[in-house]
Design brief:
Layout lengths: L1 H20 L1 H18 L2 H4 L3 E8 L13 E6 L2 E5 L5 H7 L7 E5 L5 H4 L2 H12 L5 E6 L2 H11 L1 H11 L11 E6 L7 E7 L2 E7 L9 E7 L2 E5 L7 H6 L5 E7 L1 H14 L2 H9 L7 H10 L4 E8 L5 H8 L2 H4 L4 E3 L4 E6 L6 E4 L2
Parallel strand pairs: 3-4, 4-5, 5-6, 10-11, 11-12, 12-13
Antiparallel strand pairs: 1-2, 1-14, 2-3, 7-8, 8-9, 9-10, 14-15
The structure holds zinc ion (2 copies).
Length: 357
C-alpha cells in the first residue's frame, strides 16, 4: 500500500514538474483556444428568439469590482441594442461575448457622466471591431446631440489615425462615431415611441431625477414579451404606469442605510464635501423598497436591480441591501452584477436567470 502511494506521489510530482517546465507553451495553447473561441462564438447566435437582457454594467459612479458603470444590453430577435454606456461597459460586453460590431442602436437615459463615460470606447469598438460603414444611431432625449458631437470631436484624431493605419476597407471612415437621434419627452407624462425595428417597439417616458432633466426610462416590447429599464430615478408614478404588467422591470436602487455608513465615515474623517454628496444623492434615486413597491404596484413578473449604490464588496451586505424587499414584492428578485442575463423566450411566459461571467 505504502509502495503504491509513493509511486503515485512520484507520478504526480513528475506531472507537476512537466507542467511547470512547459507552462509557457501550455498557456500559449490555452490562449490560442480562447482567442479563437472569442472570435467565433457570439451570444447572439446562441439565444433563442425572444427578448433578453444582459447587464453590461450593474453599478454606479462608485467603483465596485462586480459592477461596472451602468449599461443594459437588450437582445431582441437576435439583434443587439445597448441602453447607456458607463465606464467599463464595453469590456463587459466583450467578456459576455456580445459583439459590439453588431450593435444596432444605442439609447441614453440621461447625460450624467456615469451613463456616458464608456460611450467613446463602445462606439470605437463597434466601428473598428465591426467595420461598420454607418455611425451608430444614438437615441436620447434632447441634448443627446451635444453628447454625441462631443465624443465625435474628441475621437476625431483617433479616427484619422486608424484609417491611415488599417485602410478604408478595414475601417470605413463613414462608420466612425455616433449619429444623434434626439426625441422630445412628453411634458405631461405618458409614453412616446422612439423607434420600431420589425417586431420590436421601443418607447420612452420621463422619470424623476431632478435636477437632472431630461431623464427617461425605456420600455422594450417584442412578440408579447416586455422589459422596462428605469434609468436613474426616484420613485416615479410615471415609470410605474409605463411598467404596468411588464415581464421584467430593471430598476436602479440606492440603499439609504448603506449610504448613511459612507456619510458617517465622511463626518468622522471631517470631509465635508463627501458628506454633502452622500447626503444629496439619496433624494434622486429609489431605495430598494421603493423599487419593490413599483414592482408590486405595476404587477411586474420579475424585478432586476441594477445601478447598485453603494458598492457591495461583502456578500452579507447584499442581504442588507435587499432587506424588506421580499415583504413588499412577492415576485422573484435578482440583484444584478456584471453579466447577469435574463431571458424571455418568445411564445412563452418563461423568465430564466443566469450569470455569464
Ligand atoms: Zn443620474
Ligand atoms: Zn447614474
Amino acid at each position: 500500500m505504502k509502495r503504491i502511494a509513493s509511486v503515485l506521489l512520484i507520478v504526480v510530482l513528475i506531472a507537476a514538474a512537466t507542467a511547470f517546465v512547459f507552462r509557457k507553451s501550455i498557456a500559449m495553447r490555452m490562449m490560442e483556444r480562447v482567442v479563437a473561441g472569442n472570435l467565433q462564438v457570439s451570444l447572439l447566435d446562441e439565444v433563442e428568439d425572444g427578448l433578453h437582457v444582459v447587464l453590461c454594467g450593474a453599478g454606479s459612479p462608485l467603483p465596485d469590482v462586480e459592477r461596472s458603470g451602468p449599461c443594459v444590453a437588450v437582445i431582441a430577435g437576435g439583434k443587439l441594442y445597448v441602453v447607456d454606456s458607463g465606464a467599463g461597459s464595453s469590456r463587459v460586453l466583450a467578456r459576455a461575448r456580445l459583439p459590439q460590431g453588431e450593435i444596432e442602436r444605442v439609447l441614453l437615459t440621461h447625460f450624467h457622466s456615469d451613463h456616458i463615460d464608456g460611450l467613446g470606447e463602445l462606439m470605437l469598438q463597434r466601428w473598428a471591431g465591426g467595420g461598420r460603414s454607418e455611425p451608430v444611431p444614438v437615441h436620447g432625449p434632447t441634448g443627446v446631440e451635444r453628447v454625441v458631437a462631443g465624443f465625435n470631436q474628441a475621437y476625431g484624431q483617433d479616427f484619422v489615425y486608424r484609417v491611415a493605419h488599417h485602410g478604408e476597407d478595414t475601417v470605413p471612415p463613414s462608420g466612425a462615431g455616433g449619429d444623434a437621434r434626439p426625441f422630445s419627452v412628453p411634458a405631461d407624462g405618458g409614453v412616446t415611441q422612439v423607434f420600431r425595428d420589425g417586431d420590436l417597439e421601443v418607447s420612452a417616458f420621463a422619470v424623476d431625477h431632478a435636477p437632472v432633466s431630461p431623464a427617461v426610462g425605456y420600455r422594450f416590447d417584442y412578440k408579447g414579451r416586455s422589459v422596462l429599464i428605469s434609468g436613474d430615478t426616484a420613485k416615479s408614478s410615471n415609470l410605474q404606469a409605463a411598467a404596468d404588467g411588464v415581464d421584467l422591470l430593471v430598476h436602479e436602487a440606492l440603499s439609504p442605510e448603506l449610504v448613511a455608513v459612507m456619510t458617517r465615515a465622511a463626518q468622522t474623517a471631517g470631509i465635508k464635501r463627501i458628506e454633502k454628496i452622500t447626503v444629496d444623492i439619496v433624494d434622486y434615486h429609489a431605495s430598494p423598497i421603493e423599487a419593490a413597491e413599483i414592482a408590486r404596484d405595476a404587477a411586474v413578473d420579475h424585478l432586476l436591480f441594477y445601478h447598485i449604490v453603494p458598492p457591495l464588496p461583502l456578500a452579507p451586505l447584499e442581504q442588507v441591501f435587499l432587506e424588506g424587499v421580499d415583504e413588499v414584492y412577492p415576485g422573484p428578485v435578482t440583484l444584478g452584477r456584471d453579466g447577469t442575463m435574463i431571458r424571455l423566450p418568445s411564445g412563452s411566459t418563461e423568465i430564466e436567470v443566469s450569470e455569464l461571467l
